[in-house]
């Protein structure tokens, strides 16, 4: 892991909250190179150029949707917890909502308000997180697709590519 601290005035366009991004090979090598300096200075023409390239590269990054915000309302939190434990396979969402003490519409409204994601989008994020864990552990794409609730591997790959901008094989650096 490498850490670079930048003055806020240099990175006004960057998000002020923690987010996940895909780092390009150029940015990765630039960070490694910059960490060889004890402290960067804009007074050095070469270092100033490197700082500018770093900021340009950081500003070009797109945040990838791997965060899964949790609702804080007890009813919505119960539904989220049940979904995380894999209950959606054994019980319908409507039944989960009733067990949590609210209608499906109320739970959907709570998810939208508290997580800024619809219940459906939140579930898709959960499935994406699970699939990343399974793929990272070496499971085959077909098995992960079924586990994530997709009827075909191609449907899963299409969702993965839409969410992360690349296929599962490329994401994990396989040829």
Descriptive tags:
175 residues; mainly alpha; Arc Repressor Mutant, subunit A; 2 domains
Describe this structure in words.
The protein has 175 residues and is mainly alpha-helical. The chain has two domains: 57 residues, no CATH class; 98 residues, Orthogonal Bundle (Arc Repressor Mutant, subunit A). It is built from nine helices and two strands. A two-stranded antiparallel ribbon has the order 1-2.
Short note summarizing the structure:
The protein is mainly alpha-helical and 175 residues long.
Task: Outline the secondary-structure elements.
Elements lengths: L19 E2 L3 H10 L10 H16 L2 E2 L9 H11 L8 H8 L3 H12 L3 H18 L4 H7 L5 H12 L3 H4 L4
Structural class: mainly alpha
Could you state the CATH homologous superfamily of the largest domain? Homeodomain-like
Low-confidence stretches: none
Q: Numbering strands along the chain, what is their spatial order in the largest sheet? A: 1-2
E-strand count: 2
Strand content bin: under 5%
Annotated CATH architecture of the largest domain: Orthogonal Bundle
